[in-house]
Amino acid sequence: KISSDTNVPVVIMAGGQGKRMQPFTSILPKPLIPIGNKTVIENILENFNDYNFKKFYITLNYKSRIIKSFLSDFRLKKYINYFIEKKPLGTIGSLKNLQTKLKKNFILTNADTMIDIDFHDFLEFHVKNNNDITIATAIKKFQIPYGACEINNKGILKSINEKPKYNLMVNTGLYVIKSNVLNFITKNNKMDMDELLNKLLKKRKRVKIFPISEESWKDVGQWEEYNKIKK
Question: β-strand 105-110 against 10-14: which pairing, if any?
């Protein structure tokens, strides 16, 4: 396969404060949330290593010393490099500091996303389509717990839809990125992924989605989703 090269780096963004997971994250950083008898970040690293990836960069900011200390005994520690953000740089601002390390393509994942897919297929799709960014997306089902009212411009009710359901294609926080995309990030400036994607779309860069099943994606960044995983 095109993508079976284990030199493709994996970047894990683990610098966030995890405010949605308080009070846990007031004490421990979000990457150390337990899933089964392991932490989220151990699960993520081992999942990639199962596909023979052996080059990891973890970006840190919030409670970085705790994460580094915890992983100092981890069996894959020799494959891990750390980059500390001196100030919070958003979801992807710190990637600029890795520009000299990231050549060609690399995988980027959030530290609260666990995805069970063939990462070689994911990379191969990216390469064959010559994408600048490939986003792993899942169909997520949402239900509004209220009656949704549709009105006309005079405020008169036209219809009411009780507890409507919607299917939306959502970003799972897993990407393959061509390294030249890093030219669109300004060093030491805060930047989130949606800002970068909108900038790339304006520049007519090639951004495609890679659909995955909702079942293969576990989001541990909010209590509601985390509690589903535990059951």
Answer: parallel
